[in-house]
Write a structure and sequence with these properties.
Phosphorylase Kinase, domain 1; Aminoglycoside 3'-phosphotransferase, Chain: A, domain 2; 10 helices; 6-stranded antiparallel β-sheet; 10 strands; two-stranded antiparallel sheet
């Protein structure tokens, strides 16, 4: 899961990324021209990446102290998008518009540090843990999709989508082969059902791929939308603060349904986490609410993608511990096959 930009519990002091970051801290503070104070490096319990992260204070040119988070090294794609969408001058830090950005506000960043050629970022510190650290409510889910829609709008406004370079697609045929082998290796009681369903998908695969590859490529998709990649800002009057999406390392051109289906798939077999909210319809509604395009044909595309994801889900399963997820994927696949695969 994602790292947290918070000051709450759930942090341990060391990891490999932090060791490198700690060594480079003097060079980092020098690059920040005295604005960055000492860094308290940490490793969040849900953090799996190799970057170093830490808490610090940023002193503005007028002497004001701003709590911040340091992250290094940062993949270039994450650095570029985070800085482009979130860079805010320190004098504008508390204005309402920057505070409602759908991504973290950025104080500083660069792609060189000392003799190293890698990127780093100094970002706002959020007052709590990720949204997914607590039981989600229906308003939380709607807030997450509202922020995702706002992210789509901000990303396209910043950079028009490059229609010639859609995001990388899996080798679906190879994944189907692997899925079939894996259902046998796992010794699933449902193996005959899987075999019959996978045979139908394989026969329909050329038509499925034609339909999916013809989708409109008109959105910069986050491609990692889930509750551990969302942080909530504080709100002065005690109301729920706006969410921001973090970890922008996987952004790529695509169709908006991909972001909704990413979260939906993560919840197969435990749909109660979504509090009765349909991710695709929720994101469609929030996109419409801010004037982004949504077409009825997109809902058909969503079913095509669901079939591809469900059919290949055994390819990623290692143990019998995935039975609940695989059962939900198979049920969904069998339900969709008559309409999607004919």
């Amino acid at each position: 899961m994602a790292f947290t930009l918070s000051e709450d519990e759930g942090h341990t002091p060391v990891n490999e990324g932090n060791a490198l970051a700690s060594t480079l801290e003097p060079a980092l503070r020098d690059a920040c021209r005295g604005h960055l104070g000492p860094v308290q490096w940490f490793h969040a319990t849900w953090q799996h990446g190799g970057a170093g992260t830490g808490f610090a204070e940023w002193t503005t040119s007028r002497g004001r102290k701003l709590p911040c988070v340091v992250k290094l090294p940062v993949p270039y794609r994450e650095y570029a998008w985070t800085k482009r969408l979130g860079l805010v001058h320190e004098d504008d830090w508390d204005r309402s518009e920057p505070a409602s950005l759908p991504t973290p506000r950025v104080l500083a960043g660069g792609f060189e540090l000392g003799t190293y050629d890698f990127a780093w970022l100094i970002m706002e510190r959020f007052p709590g843990n990720p949204l997914g650290a607590h039981a989600l409510t229906e308003p939380d889910i709607w807030d997450l999709f509202e922020t995702t829609a706002e992210f789509h709008a901000a990303a396209v406004l910043d950079t028009p989508v490059d229609l010639t370079h859609p995001g990388d697609e899996p080798d679906w045929a190879a994944l189907l082969d692997r899925a079939e082998r894996q259902t046998e290796a796992l010794g699933l009681d449902t193996a005959p059902r899987w075999s019959a369903a996978l045979r139908r998908v394989r026969n329909a695969l050329p038509a499925l791929l034609d339909a999916w590859q013809a989708r409109p490529i008109d959105t910069w998709c986050h491609r990692d939308v889930h509750a551990h990649n969302a942080m909530r800002r504080a709100h002065a009057d005690g109301a729920r603060g706006k969410l921001a999406l973090i970890d922008l390392a996987r952004i790529a051109p695509g169709c908006w349904v991909e972001d909704a289906l990413y979260l939906e798939r993560l919840c197969w077999g435990r749909e109660e986490v979504l509090c009765g909210v349909d991710p695709v319809r929720a994101l469609a509604q929030t996109r419409r609410g801010i004037g982004l395009p949504v077409d009825d044909a997109d809902l058909t595309l969503a079913d095509v993608r669901r079939v591809l994801m469900a059919a290949t889900s055994p390819a990623f399963s290692r143990t019998q511990g995935d039975l609940v997820y695989l059962g939900a994927a198979l049920d969904r696949l069998e339900r969709l096959l008559p309409t999607v695969c004919g």
